[in-house]
């Protein structure tokens, strides 16, 4: 056979073999590939984006990592079902390249590839940021498996279960700084009546960020600081540099531009705030402030990342508080003394200023008498009767009328003979500004025990009691002045009418100091109290000799 025939035969055989090969295995388009790193011992299933599990088995052909066809028998550890590839238990020897050919009824063929690597434990995309609350998301292949097979998601942290976390993402806070935590998302899904687990691990590393800010001197805030000579003092220099700055933040004190370190009498302690905000504090301790310290100029110096800032501070002598305390004590003593004097001499002050008070209010009062005198004239022993007679007829008029200018109505002295007693008492009572009740041992008892047949036959003083108390308590037309002569006795005031007891409770009677030298003196303590209760202006003016 010559050479030309041999060459022709070889070409013909090549063409024939190429046609046979194309007929046996048609060319498929490349549909792309994916890679997975999976955990040993778990289950895994894969469905390409352009395929689904409902694709008939006749349209797909799966090849394993040895390029052998994979069975569709679902009892096998590795099998397929339509467009889905299942690994019921991943083993190291399952690592490799897998592919699937999909030939649709139209004859179009597409080939998809998948690369699988089986490891003991694979960490997906570590989370590394500075957010306070961090989001940890379940790896994509675990989320897709749970969605496709309606599985249940659970979480654990460093192999400890996180109860109540069943979503595809969780939020983490209160984590440790510079510490790695591993969060595992586990999907439990069911295939052919059996449960399988697919999981993915995510690591969380919390790192502290470093942020330099413009230096800010927090203290001192004033340019002057008060101090006492000869007394120790502490000066505080606080500097803020930024966030989480470890080294490049310095605070120190200088005196007249020179560091205080090494200067006798000065000591400096520098501390750093343990919080994330970088604040460095230098405390200058001056053992004993001297005259030179008041002339010196102190500087709080802050340095951070080659930047510097300072604040000036000078010491100023504190003014002595002794004068201030002295003035305060004196003012307090004067106030207390004034209060005591006012308390003790309130009546004297009121009597002293009465002549200078406005008189418009007194001109409206047209009543004739300043006081109506009520007293008991019956059921008294000889000594009490003489004492009462002396007080009513001599002492009382001589002081209040002759010396003070008041006008009194005294029963038995000022009543008109023949005038009706009822009308007399009622009229004079209405014409009087005050009701002056003279109490003696047994006063008022006849008003309770005696029941006269008519007002005209009543005991002297009985009707006066009733009318006077009526005007004072019910009509409230007049004030009452109570004067006690002698001792009340063991019964006190319990025998008096209820209305009179009520008045005694409101204002205690003024006791007549019988037998004392000042008893008849108009400016004695007793008569000052009586004059204080009397009207400020007498009802009737007396000659110039009258004394108020």
UniProtKB/TrEMBL annotation:
Pfam families: TIR. InterPro entries: Ig-like_dom_sf, Ig-like_fold, Ig_sub, IL-1_rcpt_fam, TIR_dom, Toll_tir_struct_dom_sf. One of its GO terms (biological process) is signal transduction. CDD domains: Ig. Keywords: Disulfide bond, Glycoprotein, Immunoglobulin domain, Membrane, Signal, Transmembrane, Transmembrane helix. Residues 1-20 form the signal peptide. The chain crosses the membrane at residues 324-353. SUPFAM superfamilies: Immunoglobulin, Toll/Interleukin receptor TIR domain. Residues 367-534 form the TIR domain. PANTHER family: INTERLEUKIN-1 RECEPTOR FAMILY MEMBER, INTERLEUKIN-1 RECEPTOR TYPE 1. This is TIR domain-containing protein. The lineage of its organism: Eukaryota, Metazoa, Chordata, Craniata, Vertebrata.
């Amino acid at each position: 056979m010559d050479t030309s025939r041999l060459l022709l035969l070889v070409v013909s055989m090549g063409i024939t073999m190429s046609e046979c090969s194309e007929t046996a295995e048609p060319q498929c388009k490349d549909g792309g590939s994916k890679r997975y790193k999976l955990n040993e011992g778990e289950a895994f299933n894969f469905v390409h984006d352009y395929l689904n599990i409902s694709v008939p088995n006749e349209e797909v052909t799966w090849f394993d990592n040895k390029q052998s066809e994979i069975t569709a028998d679902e009892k096998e550890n590795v099998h397929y079902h339509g467009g889905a590839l299942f690994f019921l238990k991943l083993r190291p020897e399952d690592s490799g390249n897998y592919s699937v050919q999909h030939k649709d009824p139209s004859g179009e063929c597409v080939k998809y590839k998948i690369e699988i690597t089986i490891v003991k434990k694979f960490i997906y995309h570590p989370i590394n940021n500075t957010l306070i609350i961090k989001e940890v998301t379940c790896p994509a292949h675990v989320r897709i498996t749970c969605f496709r097979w309606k599985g249940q998601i659970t979480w654990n942290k460093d192999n400890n279960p996180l109860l109540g976390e069943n979503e595809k993402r969780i939020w983490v806070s209160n984590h440790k700084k510079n510490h790695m935590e591993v969060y595992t998302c586990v999907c439990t899904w069911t295939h052919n009546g059996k449960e399988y687990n697919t999981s993915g691990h995510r690591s969380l590393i919390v790192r502290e960020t470093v942020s330099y800010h413009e230096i800010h001197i927090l203290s001192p805030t004033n340019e002057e600081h008060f101090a006492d000579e000869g007394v120790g003092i502490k000066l505080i220099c606080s500097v803020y540099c930024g966030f989480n700055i470890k080294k490049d933040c310095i605070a120190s004190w200088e005196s007249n531009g020179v560091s205080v370190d090494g200067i006798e009498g000065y000591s400096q302690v520098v501390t750093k705030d343990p919080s994330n905000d970088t604040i460095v504090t230098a405390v200058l301790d001056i053992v004993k402030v001297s005259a030179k310290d008041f002339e010196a100029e102190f500087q709080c110096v802050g340095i951070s990342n080659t930047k510097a800032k300072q604040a000036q501070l000078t010491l100023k002598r504190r003014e002595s508080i002794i004068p201030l305390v002295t003035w305060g004590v004196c003012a307090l003593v004067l106030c207390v003394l004034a209060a005591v004097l006012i308390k003790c001499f309130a009546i004297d002050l009121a009597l002293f200023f009465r002549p200078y008070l406005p008189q418009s209010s007194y001109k409206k009062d047209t009543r004739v008498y300043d006081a109506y005198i009520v007293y008991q004239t019956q059921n008294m022993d000889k000594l009490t009767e003489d004492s009462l007679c002396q007080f009513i007829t001599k002492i009382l008029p001589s002081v209040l009328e002759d010396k003070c200018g008041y006008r009194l109505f005294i029963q038995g002295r000022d009543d008109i003979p023949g005038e009706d007693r009822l009308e007399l008492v009622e009229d004079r009572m209405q014409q009087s500004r005050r009701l002056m009740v003279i109490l003696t041992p047994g006063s008022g008892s006849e008003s309770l025990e005696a029941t006269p047949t008519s007002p005209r036959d009543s005991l002297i003083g009985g009707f006066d009691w009733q009318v006077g108390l009526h005007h004072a308590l019910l009509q409230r037309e007049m004030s009452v002045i109570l004067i006690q002569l002698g001792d009340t006795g063991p019964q006190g005031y319990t025998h008096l009418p209820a209305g009179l007891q009520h008045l005694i409770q409101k204002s205690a009677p003024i006791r007549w100091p019988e037998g004392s030298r000042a008893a008849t003196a108009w400016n004695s303590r007793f008569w000052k109290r009586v004059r204080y209760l009397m009207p400020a202006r007498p009802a009737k003016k007396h000659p110039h000799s009258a004394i108020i």
